[in-house]
Amino acid sequence: MSERRSYPPGVPCWVDLSTPDTQGAAGFYGALFGWRAGFEAEPEAHGYGLFHLRGKKVAGIGPVFHEDLPAGWHSYVAVADLAETLQKASAAGGHVALPQTQITHAGRMAGLRDRENAFLPLWQAEQHHGCELVNEPGAFTWSELTTRDPAAAQDFYAAVFGWAPGGDAYYTRWLVDDKAVGGMLPMPIDVPAEVPPHWVVYFAVDDVEQAVAKVKELGGGQMSPFIDSPAGRLAVVNDPWHAEFAVISGVQEHH
């Protein structure tokens, strides 16, 4: 189902971009995915904006929290109780990276870091429930953790969200009620040690080669070769401000 109005707890529900150049990035993603950006005029929005596709909310965009922080895409996991989830994360060996914050009337957010320091934001919905369009070209379709300790991650996310591991010895599919909501794979051995474990946001496209060519034309870059996975052909890319994301030709029915 492409259109969504709500998400169960434990399911990735929203994605947003932190960037040092919100106007420039809005132009980049508008040209790449056909998104239209709108920015809130209210001071409490702090420069945050929304991307729309066919009139539906598909992602957010805002300035980086501090000029020293890198640009990046983040996927938010829906939770019923932020305080309880953060307590579970701390008890499981993670820690609170961002304390609970009220976001106007939209909802409440917080951020955790898992045992290996991968950052993952959380969302407790009020008026804003998340992406209104998923699993189709130009929309969010998958979240994937790359980590050096998959066993520790399995234990951590099971304790925090109740995720059950599926898949095979190499690739883990996170399951909620037997439905895949995300994935995990080991960090490749050739990745420099200073690159921390992290989550990658995937967007569906009709044609991966065309999408990557467009990324390059718009000033971005290709970070991985083209990969033929069981889920579809994919590539990891970055925008001109070095925010990493992936494009995939297969639509992941995980929501």
UniProtKB/TrEMBL annotation:
<feature type="domain" description="VOC">
    <location>
        <begin position="11"/>
        <end position="125"/>
    </location>
</feature>
<feature type="domain" description="VOC">
    <location>
        <begin position="139"/>
        <end position="250"/>
    </location>
</feature>
<dbReference type="InterPro" id="IPR029068">
    <property type="entry name" value="Glyas_Bleomycin-R_OHBP_Dase"/>
</dbReference>
<dbReference type="InterPro" id="IPR037523">
    <property type="entry name" value="VOC_core"/>
</dbReference>
<dbReference type="InterPro" id="IPR052164">
    <property type="entry name" value="Anthracycline_SecMetBiosynth"/>
</dbReference>
<dbReference type="InterPro" id="IPR004360">
    <property type="entry name" value="Glyas_Fos-R_dOase_dom"/>
</dbReference>
<dbReference type="Pfam" id="PF00903">
    <property type="entry name" value="Glyoxalase"/>
</dbReference>
<protein>
    <submittedName>
        <fullName>VOC family protein</fullName>
    </submittedName>
</protein>
